[in-house]
Amino acid sequence: MAAVKFEQAMARLEAIVGELEKSDLPLDESLKIFEEGIRLSKNCLKVLEEAEHKVEVLVQDKNGKKRIHAFSADDEADAPSA
Amino acid sequence: MLTVSELTGLLRTSIEEQFSDIWLEGELSNVRAPGSGHIYCTLKDKTSQIRAVLFRSSAVRLRFALQEGMHVIVRGRLTVYELRGEYQIVLDTVEPKGIGALQLAFEQLKERLAAEGLFDQDRKKPLPPFPRTVGVVTSMTGAAVRDILAVLRRRWPALHILIAPVQVQGESAGRQIAEALAALNDWGSVDVIVVGRGGGSLEDLWSFNEEVVVRAIVASHVPVVSAVGHEIDVTLADFAADLRAPTPSAAAEAVVPVLAEVVERLRELTIRTGQVMSRHCAFERQRLDAAIRGVTDLRFRLQDAAQRTDDMVDRLRGIVQHLLVSGRERVHTMQRDLSALNPILVIKQGLATVPQFSKRLEGQMGAILAQHRHRTQAMLAQLNTLSPLAVLGRGYSILHTVPAGQILHRASDVSVGQELEAQLAQGQLTCVVTRVGDDSSV
What are the DSSP calls for A7-50, one per residue? Predict the structure, then answer.
């Protein structure tokens, strides 16, 4: 799930709560968006729980091609001094 | 005896030896920068002037643009331009007076780029609220990268961080920073970029004032947060960035929310959703109950209304009946009144009187007629006594001519042979005249 989708899901969830709290919706529609809201909130939590921490370094090799490698303490030593 | 060249050569040697390294203060005028890359100008004060040249090798190191009227302090050596026999100063460094060269360069570039609209507020892109991947452009060796990583990890542990290592000071730093920004844009999945470095001198931070960096930030499709030095340091990169953070740590705080807070927010939203829903259900339940009560009430009200309707129908019927009866009476009255005026009856009545009149008329007429007849008879009798014919009864006759019927009075009126008629009391005689006598004979 991309960041955009998570953002949209959160925004939709906020909107749903807002709509429900206005309470001018018919019951069946309320139930419908209520279910959508619960589904969204579960998905959002799942995304947050499943995402993993990852630090990588973008470097350019001798051929000018860009690649990434995992960040390690060595990177600091490798880097040109400023 | 010297030649011009010899004299000029001597002067040049002398001048170059004597003025090999001088500092000079003056006002720039007549600044020219032809294609060669050398810069020519004149330095002057109130009463004098001297030609000056800044050769290309020195000109490229110049951070600010030389402008007419600018007050400068220069360092250089004097020489003679033999071709024209003019002495001039070859400039090594030019510093603006009263303000640092870097500061001036900063102001000049800022003004130029601002005029292009590169710092306009409406160019600024909003930061994504929940980035998945954060790009970091900074040095691997500085404190900045450690600060950024630490803050990002603390706030949003489940984050993909992509570092593009660069030098953050020195000749090539600006170009490296610009290339790193472009590379992170090209990488595709980066949601927001932090570019910056820790604190340092104005010189140290200079790369972040370079035009190439400003343009790379402006060109970035991915939102850029700048964090250069400390809070008091402001670079052109800061002006160009979508958000300027005072420090690298602050930049990291600006790009990601606190995961715990987001989770809490999610939990709160979920709870609120449930609460609102159950409130809504309870409310709907109440409405339903009220509706059911309403239906029961309605039935009673309907029965009541039906009864009242019946009542009213009855009353209406009475009223209508009454109206009918009284109406009918009125019609009868009017008919009666009308009959009295019926013209046929009137005529019939009139006709009945006609025979009475005619009877009376007849009676009267009879009487009148009898009366007249009576009087006529009386008059006839009276007339008879007076009639000449009555004389005839006494033996007289009347002679008259035929056919004229003229009564004869004189014998001379007739001739012999003429036929006459004699009227007797009873019957007539036709006579012929045989003699006409004279009067005296009678």
Answer: HHHHHHHHHHHHHHHHT-S-HHHHHHHHHHHHHHHHHHHHHHHH
